[in-house]
């Protein structure tokens, strides 16, 4: 007679449960399935078999595969070079070290209640590795769509291991690749000349995409069906790769989530601000570019980390190589190869996470009608706008409101529009006349975050990511309501349909229209709906009304000078 599990002693129950899991893990799998070996152009790599919960679908994971030589010594502040071949079988069962970064930034209020396993992460300058998640049945010739994820983090923090591609690979039958790239000073420092052109992190992304082209077929992927996707600075990376001549032919579709190449804080600016700050902090006692680079190459990882800590965000540069011109010029002149794109934002981009990171959360909490003028003047100068613009911003967003809560909410909306919504709509408008664009606004406030966030926060920056991957940070299981489960499956299906066919639609899904002259977009929520002309008035304010007023101001100031 077989005793039901519930009648077994608890310790034995645990043993039986463990055995059941083990059987699930290896039943019907020979050792080549449990620890698969694949070829790459530099050597063989051994992965492991993961069973995706709830589905019992097997996924092979290959972690920490080098796509470039370690960027150390003379390769610090230099373009990535091809990885060295290895003999024997390389172990691909654990994550590589993460790139050098200030992890204290992730202990901020936006993250501290999430119990992230940050203390377990090792960090190194030797960090140019990628991870592959592929369905266990996939083999060379499977020709599955490939989705390459580029993490966010203001180009100063982030890691490939933070996002687990197992669920997406298992449920939607795709190959998911997550990549790392140099961050902060090591990733984006530039001297503005031949001694250190900059954009090293972007060049790393190109190197990773080249590696995918050469090798992904061995893992069941189709190199002619590659989609790049990313969030925040990862979305800005995707957008920059779209306009860069260096990435031609390396991907075929693009997804930009809350980040584009026109993001004001990530947009290529002059290199001088970062250059001067690094030179002053380095102790190198030189402003000569060649001597400074030589000196910085001699600094320890700890010394570089100390310099990194002053940067909450770091911009790319127009280096003449990865970005031959300003992205706005490249987009306007269609001096790039347009690809079908999904582009979108969340409805509360400046809700909690970004203000916390940028150190403005407290200032916002203290906004009243009395200090609003001063806060707006300061904000306008940070936006590199004339101080007189603060009155126009106040009129547009705050009107005559006296209520502090409303003023704070309007301030958050205003900065969210400036940083995320307006640049994203601009990029969508540039691209839609040359290739299909599907636009979305994610509107769902995740139930699993309600207990750790203020109630006013709606869909904050990055809230859509777990719904795309079906898991939380570092592969932690999401506790979703039934309605959220449906939203999760729907979003996975939209994203992968797009990767597979260049169109997110399929039978059984609410229809997602292409963005055309009617400005249609999808409102991604528990009940999806089609909207029109997202924030059209705000877009007009930032792209027409305000620039026009600035021109008028300049004219009248010049006339005064002449008088």
UniProtKB/TrEMBL annotation:
PROSITE patterns assigned: CARBOXYLESTERASE_B_1, CARBOXYLESTERASE_B_2
Keyword list, A-Z: Disulfide bond, Hydrolase, Signal
Enzyme class: hydrolase
Molecular function (Gene Ontology), one example: hydrolase activity
SUPFAM superfamilies given in the database record: alpha/beta-Hydrolases (SSF53474)
InterPro entries: AB_hydrolase_fold (IPR029058), CarbesteraseB (IPR002018), Carboxylesterase_B_AS (IPR019826), Carboxylesterase_B_CS (IPR019819), Type-B_Carboxylest/Lipase (IPR050309)
Domain Carboxylesterase type B: 35-542
Signal peptide range: 1-28
Superkingdom as given in the UniProt entry: Eukaryota
Calcium in keyword set: no
Keyword match Iron-sulfur: no
Gene3D superfamilies, A to Z: alpha/beta hydrolase (3.40.50.1820)
EC number: 3.1.1.-
Family: Belongs to the type-B carboxylesterase/lipase family.
Protein's UniProt name: Carboxylic ester hydrolase
């Amino acid at each position: 007679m077989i005793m039901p599990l519930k009648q077994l002693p608890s310790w034995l129950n645990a043993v039986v449960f463990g055995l059941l899991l083990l059987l699930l893990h290896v039943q019907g799998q020979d050792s080549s399935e449990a620890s698969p070996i694949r070829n790459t152009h530099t050597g063989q790599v051994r992965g492991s078999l993961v069973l995706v919960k709830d589905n019992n679908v097997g996924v092979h994971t290959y972690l920490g595969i080098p796509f470039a030589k370690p960027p150390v010594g003379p390769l610090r502040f230099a373009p990535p070079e091809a990885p060295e071949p290895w003999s024997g079988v390389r172990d691909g069962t654990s994550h590589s070290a993460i790139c050098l970064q200030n992890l204290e930034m992730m202990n901020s209020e936006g993250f501290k209640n999430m119990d992230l396993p940050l203390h377990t992460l090792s960090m190194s300058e030797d960090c140019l590795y990628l991870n592959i998640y592929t369905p266990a049945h996939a083999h060379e010739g499977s020709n599955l769509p490939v989705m390459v994820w580029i993490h966010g983090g203001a180009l100063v923090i982030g890691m490939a291991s933070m996002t687990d591609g197992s669920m997406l690979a298992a449920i939607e039958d795709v190959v998911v690749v997550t990549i790392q790239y140099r961050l902060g000073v090591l990733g984006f420092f530039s001297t503005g000349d031949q001694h250190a052109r900059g954009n090293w992190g972007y060049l790393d992304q190109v190197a990773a995409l080249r590696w995918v082209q050469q090798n992904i077929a061995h893992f069941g992927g189709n190199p002619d069906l590659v989609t790049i996707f990313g969030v925040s600075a990862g979305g800005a990376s995707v957008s920059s790769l779209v306009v860069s001549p260096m990435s031609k032919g390396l991907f075929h579709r693009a997804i930009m989530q809350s980040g584009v190449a026109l993001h004001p804080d990530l947009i290529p600016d002059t290199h001088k601000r970062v250059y001067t700050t690094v030179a002053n902090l380095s102790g190198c006692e030189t402003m000569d570019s060649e001597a400074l680079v030589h000196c910085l190459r001699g600094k320890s990882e700890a010394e570089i980390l100390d310099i990194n800590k002053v940067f909450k965000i770091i911009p790319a540069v127009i280096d003449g190589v990865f970005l031959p011109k300003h992205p706005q010029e490249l987009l306007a002149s269609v001096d790039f190869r347009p690809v079908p794109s999904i582009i979108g934002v969340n409805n509360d981009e400046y809700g909690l996470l970004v203000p916390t990171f940028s150190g403005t959360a407290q200032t916002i909490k203290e906004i009243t009608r009395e200090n609003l003028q001063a806060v707006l003047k300061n904000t306008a100068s940070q936006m590199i706008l004339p101080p007189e613009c603060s009155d126009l911003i106040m009129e547009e967003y705050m009107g005559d409101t006296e209520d502090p809560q409303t003023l704070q909410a309007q301030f958050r909306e205003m900065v969210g529009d400036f940083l995320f919504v307006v640049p994203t709509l601009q990029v969508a408008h540039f691209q839609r006349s040359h290739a299909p664009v599907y636009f979305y606004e994610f509107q769902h406030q995740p139930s699993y975050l309600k207990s750790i966030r203020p109630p006013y926060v709606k869909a904050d920056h990055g809230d859509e990511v777990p719904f795309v991957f079906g898991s939380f940070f570092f592969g932690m299981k999401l506790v979703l309501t039934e309605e959220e489960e449906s939203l999760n499956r729907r979003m996975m299906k939209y994203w992968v349909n797009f990767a597979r066919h260049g169109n997110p639609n399929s039978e059984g899904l609410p229809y997602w229209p292409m963005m055309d002259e009617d400005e249609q977009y999808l409102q991604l929520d528990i009940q999806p709906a089609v909207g029109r002309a997202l924030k059209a008035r705000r877009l007009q304010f930032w792209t027409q009304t305000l620039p026009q007023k600035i021109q008028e101001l300049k004219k009248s100031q010049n006339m005064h000078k002449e008088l």
